[in-house]
Amino acid sequence: xxxxxxxxxxxxxxxxxxxxxxxxxxxxxxxxxxxxxxxxxxxxxxxxxxxxxxxxxxxxxxxxxxxxxxxxxxxxxxxxxxxxxxxxxxxxxxxxxxxxxxxxxxxxxxxxxxxxxxxxxxxxxxxxxxxxxxxxxxxxxxxxxxxxxxxxxxxxxxxxxxxxxxxxxxxxxxxxxxxxxxxxxxxxxxxxxxxxxxxxxxxxxxxxxxxxxxxxxxxxxxxxxxxxxxxxxxxxxxxxxxxxxxxxxxxxxxxxxxxxxxxxxxxxxxxxxxxxxxxxxxxxxxxxxxxxxxxxxxxxxxxxxxxxxxxxxxxxxxxxxxxxxxxxxxxxxxxxxxxxxxxxxxxxxxxxxxxxxxxxxxxxxxxxxxxxxxxxxxxxxxxxxxxxxxxxxxxxxxxxxxxxxxxxxxxxxxxxxxxxxxxxxxxxxxxxxxxxxxxxxxxxxxxxxxxxxxxxxxxxxxxxxxxxxxxxxxxxxxxxxxxxxxxxxxxxxxxxxxxxxxxxxxxxxxxxxxxxxxxxxxxxxxxxxxxxxxxxxxxxxxxxxxxxxxxxxxxxxxxxxxxxxxxxxxxxxxxxxxxxxxxxxxxxxxxxxxxxxxxxxxxxxxxxxxxxxxxxxxxxxxxxxxxxxxxxxxxxxxxxxxxxxxxxxxxxxxxxxxxxxxxxxxxxxxxxxxxxxxxxxxxxxxxxxxxxxxxxxxxxxxxxx
Length: 705
Known about the structure:
Layout: H1 2-15, H2 19-34, H3 39-56, H4 64-74, H5 80-97, H6 105-115, H7 121-140, H8 146-156, H9 162-177, H10 187-197, H11 203-222, H12 229-239, H13 245-262, H14 270-277, H15 288-303, H16 308-311, H17 314-320, H18 328-332, H19 334-338, H20 343-349, H21 354-360, H22 376-388, H23 394-410, H24 412-415, H25 419-428, H26 435-450, H27 476-486, H28 502-517, H29 519-536, H30 539-550, H31 556-572, H32 577-585, H33 589-602, H34 606-615, H35 619-628, H36 636-649, H37 655-660, H38 668-680, H39 685-695
Subcellular location: Endosome membrane; Microsome membrane
InterPro entries: ARM-like (IPR011989), ARM-type_fold (IPR016024), Vac14 (IPR026825), VAC14_Fig4p-bd (IPR021841)
Family: Belongs to the VAC14 family.
C-alpha cells in the first residue's frame, strides 16, 4: 500500500515538474529509511527507492546519483536479506534508467564485483541478474566510457577471490565482443592480471581466461598495426618464466606471435626474452609443447639481428631511441657485462618511456625499416650467465653457443668488445660432456680466431701472460695470403677468410694450457677437438702454431704427450689429407718451412720424430735417428710407441712407403730404418708383423750399397 501511494505521489510531482519535491522524497527515503539503524526501516527505504524510480520512469536518469548511492551502501549490510533487497532495488532502478546509468557504471561495477563473492547464494543469484542486465545495457549502448572504466578494471583484476575473478573475466569477454569498444588499446593495463587469473585453481575460470586471451590474440593478429607490443613485452617475459605450465605455454605462444608480428620492435627486449626462452629449450617431453614454442621464439628472435646492427652508430641511436642506452661509454665499461644485477630489472630500466617508444616505433610496413638499437651488452650478459650455469641442459648450452656464433657473424665489430670476457668460459666449455656442445663451442672459438674484426687495433688479447715472447715470429698469415692469391689453396670452412688475427695465437696457447691442466680432456677429447679445428680453420696454421708453442713448453712430459697426439692426428685423420700430401713431397718452400717447424717440436718425442721423417720421406735421417735410440733409455712407453708406429706403417696412409720397398736400390735407408725398428722391438706381435713385411722385400742382395 505504501509503495502504491508513493508511486502516485511521485507521478503527481513528475506531472507538475516539481523537481524539489521529488528530491525531497528521495532524500527522506535515503536518510531516514535506507540508511537507518533499524533493519525494517532499511528494507522499507530500499523498496521505496525502487518504487520511486519506477514512478519516475524515463526521468529517473535525472536523480540516479541520489537513487543509487544509498542502495549501494546497503550492499555492505551485515544482514544477507537486506543485501538481497538492495540487489532487487538496484535491479529495478537500472531496468528503468537503462542507458542513463552508464555515467555511474564504475560505482555499479565496484558494488557488483563485491557481491559476486558474497557467501549467501540468494544474494549471489540476485547480483547475477543485475549483472546480466548491466551487460545488456553496455552491449547495446555506444556511450560506454572505457577510459574511465580501465583504472577500476586494472585494480579489480588482481583479486584472488574466485568469484570475483569469474566476474571480471565475464566482463572482459563482454567488452571484447562489443564492436564499438576497443579494449585492445588498453590490453597492456590488464594483461598481467589476466595471466595471473590464468593460474587460478578453478578449471572453469582458467578456461574462461584462456578464451579471453585467445580472443585478444586473434584481434592482435588481425590488427597488428594498432597493438602496443613494446608495452607488453616485459609482461610476457615475466610470465614466460612462470611455474604454472598453462601460464608459461600461453605466454610463450604470445611471445612467438609478438616476435613474428612486431619484428625488430622486440629487439630492445632481447635480453629478457632470452632469459625466459633459453631454459625452456632443455625441457623434456613432459613440457614438449613449451619447448617447441620456445624454440620458434628463439629462432625468430635470432633472425632479427642483421649486419646493419654492427654498423649503427650507438650515440646517434641512443638519441633516437632513449629507451635503449647503448652509448660507446656504456659498451666500453666492463662492469656492464660482469655486474650481478638482475636481468629483468635491467630490461625494465631500458624501457621506461614506453609511450615514447610506441610513438617512435610505428609498426613496420613494406617500405620502412624500423630503427632500433640492439642491446648487445644485455644479450651477451644473459648468454654469459647461462654458459656459467652448470645446471642448464645441453640444448640450452647449444642454443647459447649458436647465439654467440650468430652475433660474431652478424655484429663482429661490437662482439669483439666482449671477447676478452667471453674467452675463458668458451675455453672451459670445451670440457663439456656433450660432443654437440663442444662442436658449437669450437665454431664460436674458430670464428673469433679467424674473423677479420679480431685484427682491429685495440681488440687484441688483454692477458699479458698469454702473449707469446717477443722474439718469436709466426709467419703463417703472409704465407696463407700468398697461397690464397696464387690459387693453390682454397678457403677453409670458416665463414671468414682463413687468416690469423689477434686471438688465434691466444686461442692456441690457452687450448694447450687447458690440455696440460686437464690431461683427461686431452686423452678423451684432444684428438676430436684438434680435428674439428682443422676443419674450421687452416690446418697448417694450427699445426705450425702449436708446434711453435710446444717448442717452449717447460713440462717435457706434457710436450711429449701432446706431440704424440698431434702426430697421430696428422698421420691418421682424413681432415689432414691435404696437409699430409703437402709434407710428403716437400716441393714448396712453405712445406719445407712447416716441416722444419714441426720437426723441432716433434723432437720432444723420439718415435714421433721418426714417423715424421717417414711421412716426409727423409729415410736416411730416420735411419740416423734410430741409430741414436741405442743411447736412450728403452722404457715400456717407448716400446709401446714403436709398436704403434709399426701398426701405422701397415695402414693405408703409408701405402706409398710400402710400395717403395720394391725399389730396394733407391731406398736402402728405408729398409735399414725398418730393420732398425725391428731390432728395437722384443719378440712380439709387432715384431712378427714387421718381420713378415720385410721378408716380402724382393732380392735382399740388392739392399747392399
